[in-house]
Write a structure and sequence with these properties.
The complex is a heterodimer of chains A (108) and B (122). Chain A is mainly β and 108 residues long. Chain A is built from no helices and eleven strands. In chain A, the strands form two sheets. In chain A, strands 2, 4, 5, 6, 9, 10 and 11 form a seven-stranded mixed beta sheet that branches. In chain A, a hairpin with a 6-residue loop joins strand 4 and strand 5. The relative contact order of chain A is 0.34. In chain B, strands 2, 4, 5, 6, 9, 10 and 11 form a seven-stranded mixed beta sheet that branches. Chain B starts with a strand and ends with a strand. The chains are: A mainly beta (108), B mainly beta (122).
Chain lengths: 108, 122
């Protein structure tokens, strides 16, 4: 099973700043099958990005994904108040899909 | 509106059983792989099980932690997915989410239910 390690554990930023979240895989992710989800307290996760780059329906273009192989990044170009939440990466290139442990994006 | 609504959660003693239901609306249920993802209190996400569409034999896959104890099934005529949980353990305590697979392989979860809480405790 591919293990995903997200960093940092917590990221403290202010609205309007740029956020960069990292996800590192224990081995190369096949065909770059990597997704990102956002979860707010008391809510279900929401799909943001899949296939590294593709935004899900309704996701604003301030969210972007990049990376390849074992290293992936979620970037939020200019933080809005509603962006402060938990973020998870997920790989689905292996037969056993797995999630990272999450990065908490909090208001500074 | 695309929607998944889970039900059936609650408090159950270790060793007992529980069946979760997930009722879908707003899309052609039979065209999509359906999965169950759980989240223990204060923890991350774990894929529990998924079931393929009829064209792929409605075959299912399970996490190692639940294999042999949980069974996923589907009723396409009523747009419902089920998760039968037997021999429950305290470590099965979690919010259980029903999800829809964006791709034919079911591996990207684009629609999520609100979740149902399962507490396994004596």
């Amino acid at each position: 099973e591919i293990v995903l390690t997200q960093s940092p554990g917590t990221l403290s930023l202010s609205p309007g700043e740029r956020a960069t979240l990292f996800c590192r895989a224990s081995q190369s992710v096949y065909t770059n099958y990597l997704a990102w989800y956002q979860q707010k307290p008391g809510q279900a996760p929401r799909l943001l990005i899949y296939g590294i780059f593709s935004r899900a329906t309704g996701i604003p273009d301030r969210f972007s994904g990049s990376g390849s192989g074992t290293d992936f990044t979620l970037t939020i170009s200019r933080l809005e108040p509603e962006d402060f939440a938990l973020y998870y990466c997920q790989q689905y290139g292996d037969t056993r899909w797995s999630f990272g442990q999450g990065t908490k994006l909090e208001i500074k | 509106e695309l929607q998944l609504v889970e039900s059936g959660g609650g408090l159950v003693q270790p060793g007992r059983s529980l069946r979760l239901s997930c009722t879908a609306s707003g899309f052609t249920f039979g065209d999509y792989v359906m999965s169950w993802v759980r989240q223990a209190p204060g923890k991350g996400l774990e894929l529990v099980a998924f079931i393929r569409i009829k064209a792929y034999g409605e075959t299912a896959e399970y996490a190692a932690s639940v294999k042999g104890r949980f069974t996923v099934s589907r009723d396409d005529s009523n747009s419902i997915a089920y998760l039968q949980m037997d021999s429950l353990k305290t470590e099965d305590t979690a919010v259980y989410y029903c999800t829809r697979g964006l791709r034919i392989s079911g591996d990207v979860f684009d629609i999520w239910g609100q979740g149902t809480m399962v507490t396994v405790s004596s």
